[in-house]
Amino acid sequence: MRQGRAGALSRTHAAMARTARDEADTFSALARFLERAQARAAGNRGLRGLMHRHTVEGTDLAPARQEIAQRCTHLMRQARAQGTLRDDVTESDLAPIATTLEAVLALPGEQPSDRWRRYLALILDGLRVSPDQAPQPGQENAP
Length: 143
What we know:
Layout: H1 2-21, H2 26-42, H3 45-51, E1 55-56, E2 59-60, H4 62-82, H5 94-105, H6 115-127
Antiparallel strand pairs: 1-2
C-alpha cells in the first residue's frame, strides 16, 4: 500500500514540475510549483512523512526526487536568466525552504491550517528580484 502511495507521490510531483517547466514566466511557475506541492503536503501528514524517507518498503523515491530537483534547477536557472529570481538564490536553498514551511505546518493551532501560505508568500518575496534588494549576509561587497 505504501509503495503505491510513494509511486503516486513521485508521479504527481514530477508531473507538476514538468508542467511548471513549460510556462513562460519561470519565477511564477516555480512559485506555483512550490505552492501546489506544499498544499498537497499540508493536507496529508502521511505524504509529508514519505517526503522525508529515501525508501518506502523497497520503493526508492530517489529517482522522483532527482527529477523534481532537476526540473526546479531548470526553473531557477531560467528565472535568474529572466531577471526575476535573485542571483544569490541557489538550488541548495530549496530544502531549507521546504523545511521551514514544514515547521509552520507543525505549529500548534487549528488543523488544517493555511498559515504556511503566508510564509510561502514572504519567502517568495525574498527570492524575487527587486530594485532595492539588500545583499545576502556575506555578500555585502560582492559586485
